[in-house]
Amino acid sequence: MGMGLMLSVAATTLCGVTETLMRRTANNEGFADRPDAVTSMSAMWLIPQYSFFGLAEAVNTIGQIEFIYSQLPKSMTSVGMALSTLGGTLASVIGVILVRIVDAATNKGGKEGWLADNINRGHLDYYYWLLTAMGVVNLGYYYICCWAFGPMGARPGSANAGVESES
């Protein structure tokens, strides 16, 4: 799961870089007040970040499933999977709430907010940098939890309990 978090942080970093370049390109080409205009920047700039998001989701899901099946008793695995799905749903709701909070906080004083209707005047890149910072904090929290939890093989009842490591 740590690899999924790292890929997610890399993806949001790429989003921030790409959005900064897109905004700069649009404004340099005179499209600051024309959000519907087409810039010279290729849509192919989006491929790396969405590839990283897809890989992060796949790695994260596999890690969660592996953790659930290796650490929970058989009778609890379906509950664990349901809670995992519920966690994804709650994350989506929190994402919507975060967008509303950022929009409200950055629209104060009559100035153009980060998530403005005119993408060339707003600062969507700042939003991506906020998500990147939150991802870095989450990654640090994940490593603290991993340290506190300890190695998987050391837990009684785990799939690796009693198996000696070769290192």
UniProtKB/TrEMBL annotation:
It is a multi-pass membrane protein. The chain crosses the membrane at residues 81-102, 126-149. Keywords: Membrane, Signal, Transmembrane, Transmembrane helix. It is found in: Membrane. InterPro entries: MFS_trans_sf (IPR036259), POT_fam (IPR000109). Gene3D superfamilies: MFS general substrate transporter like domains. Residues 1-15 form the signal peptide. Its main location: membrane. It comes from the Eukaryota. Pfam families: PTR2. Belongs to the major facilitator superfamily. Proton-dependent oligopeptide transporter (POT/PTR) (TC 2.A.17) family. This is Protein NRT1/ PTR family 1.2. It comes from Vitis vinifera.
